[in-house]
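Model: You mentioned two targets. I'll fold them one after the other.
Researcher: Yes, keep them separate.
Model: Target one:
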Amino acid sequence: MKAIDLIVVGIDFSDYSPEILKYASSVAELHSAEIVAVNVINKRQIESLEEAFSDERPHTFSLQKFLSDETGKRTRDLDDLLKQWVSKKVSARAIIRPGIPFEEILKVVDEEDADLLVINSRGRSTFRDYIYGTTAEKIFRHTPVTLLSLNLSIVQ
């Protein structure tokens, strides 16, 4: 059995994200593994903003500024989650990327040479996701590493 040295964790900032990180932290601590938490600024959100601003107020939207601001905000938020929910014994870092969520998460798995991918099977989904397939479903079909998919209820 291959050792687990690096765990990629997909984080969508849903209410389930802290539980996913706690679970991944337990696995990482057990195996002395590192955690790389990944969040993706969805390409659909970016395209929607570009379209809305081009119709309503042309030349007022800067994609570069939006991505810079959003990346900074999400990095701070993800760093806060890591500090709060990942054991101090576990090395953890954040990666924020724009793009199609399942594609970007799988790119990080490949680039970081991950041994395990942890995701939540629930999260932010819409009717459109139901029709075309969720991020989790696409990851199930394409991941090159062992996948731990958690179906968590919100802990009250």
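Model: Target two:
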Amino acid sequence: MLKLLFKRCSFLLFLSLSVGTNGQTLHFIASIDQVNDDIRQGCAKDYEEAFALFRAIAQDAGMRFNHQKLPFNQGSVESYLERFTCGPDDVVVFLYSGHAFRYEDDNEEEWPWPYLFYCNRAQSGADTENCEVDMEEVQEDIKYSKPRMSIVLGDCCNDVQNSPASNAMLSQYGSVAEDSDPNSTGTYAHLDLIRSFRGHIIASAAKPGQQAETNDSEGSYFFGAFRYNLLNALKSQQPTSWENILANTRNTVMKMSNNQQTPMFRVTK
């Protein structure tokens, strides 16, 4: 029998940019765990901050912002991804917030990304057939629509973190300001990260076998660090890249977790 290795809170972002003021739109599509009480608050916090972040970025970049929140079940997500279409200059990011798992015999080199879990963990037991969505297949479905750019973020959290020092650090990283006037344009220095980048990004909160942490009041280590480093990159006058943003996110999470959680990522162009 395959042993299921559960992760605590999995967070994926599906975002899409299509025709707007400058020929692009940002579609924010999310599926948020509302059935597992142990992680509901932390996942809701990540979603709230992600929604605000990408709406502000879209407005500053002069892009139209579309938002879709999917029902939290396997069928709705798979059906939506199968039907999804976008323009050749669109950017797509999918947000998943909930539990995730791996099978014990998954080869880390072939299957480094987790399965997203769309069921109540206390009730489902070992039966995952109607619960799982492969994180990498989410990216493949998005890429099939031929967007200019896609981002898939998987935040798989296995413990609610009660370390006062780590929580204080997470709160500090969460305090970085977004665009103070989201109705204006051109505030961020590096909007080319969104408007011009061509390629596909996939990132997970932790390596296989590791736990990833969340906090009910602040959200997850991974998304908190990602938001912090993305905003800093957008505001910086120095050259930057998605590789740098994700590497800095990894380093931030490792610092917060005392090297117990190491995010991984892949950028293809």
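Researcher: Noted. Anything on target two?
Model: The chain has eight helices and twelve strands.
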